[in-house]
């Protein structure tokens, strides 16, 4: 049984005057512990698909199952990390990272200590009593990752989580997220516009066509890149650049297509 199975997903947005199809017949299977990325032209439905997988949006047609259960019944097994950290400015970092546990009524001394240990693993020692405004953007995103991991989700949804950061912080955080997810054997789906980021972090890359979004091509990242942290993978110039150019050409062809 596949860990995550997306079967024949269609989605259309309806208004009083129009109907716009965002996704058409998407079928994807993801194995446990796999890191996959969604790439495609702007407006191809990547975030819509992520929302459907997370159970935040009901597809017009099709099903999404996590370990054989509809995702609507597995909401506590899915964590979401967004472009903005969305930490509450009036709460301390400790209160922010423990919010999910509190909402799920799982906050106790053991789980509190677990979140504080996660902070240390993220290099955020002694910040638990500080407020978000006292931390840099990269530190806040690390705290947001701790908040996401604190409830021990089985599947992580990453919606362009590094795009608002400066390039050096982005590279450092890519490595940190990659190593953390490998250590905890988490399954992750990344939405990104950055081809290099997708290659550096992923096992497989799904390229969606322009609206309506369809699964256009799947790229398997070579093993010699998959076993490397993202920064090192980017420096494996020959293999990395070959795959980058291949995906770039396909993406450019999709972006210049005339949609009827």
From TrEMBL:
GO terms for molecular function: ATP binding; ATP hydrolysis activity. Keywords: ATP-binding, Nucleotide-binding, Transport. PROSITE patterns: ABC_TRANSPORTER_1, ABC_TRANSPORTER_2. SMART domains: AAA. The keyword Membrane does not apply. It comes from the Bacteria. The keyword Coiled coil does not apply. Residues 4-235 form the ABC transporter domain. This is NitT/TauT family transport system ATP-binding protein. It comes from Bacillus benzoevorans.
């Amino acid at each position: 049984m596949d860990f995550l199975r997306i079967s024949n997903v269609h989605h259309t947005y309806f208004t009083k005057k129009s109907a716009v199809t965002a996704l058409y017949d998407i079928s994807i299977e993801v194995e446990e512990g796999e890191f996959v990325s969604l790439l495609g032209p702007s407006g191809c439905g990547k975030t819509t698909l992520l929302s459907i997988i997370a159970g935040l949006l009901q597809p017009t047609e099709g099903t999404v199952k996590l370990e054989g259960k509809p995702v609507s019944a597995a909401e506590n097994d899915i964590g979401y990390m967004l472009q903005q950290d969305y930490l509450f400015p009036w709460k301390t970092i400790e209160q922010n990272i423990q919010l999910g546990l509190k909402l799920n009524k799982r906050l106790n001394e053991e789980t509190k200590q677990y979140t504080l240990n996660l902070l240390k693993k993220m290099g955020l020692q002694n910040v638990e009593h500080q407020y978000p405004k006292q931390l840099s953007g990269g530190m806040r995103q690390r705290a947001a990752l701790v908040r996401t991991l604190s409830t021990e989700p089985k599947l992580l949804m990453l919606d362009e989580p590094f795009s608002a950061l400066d390039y050096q912080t982005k590279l450092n955080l890519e490595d940190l997220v990659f190593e953390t997810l490998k250590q905890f054997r988490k399954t992750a789906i990344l939405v990104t516009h950055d081809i290099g980021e997708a290659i550096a972090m992923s096992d497989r890359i799904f390229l969606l066509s322009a609206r309506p979004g369809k699964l256009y091509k799947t790229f398997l990242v070579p093993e010699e890149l998959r076993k490397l942290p993202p920064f090192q993978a980017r420096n494996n110039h020959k293999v990395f650049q070959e795959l980058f150019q291949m995906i770039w050409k396909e993406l450019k062809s999709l972006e210049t297509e005339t949609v009827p």
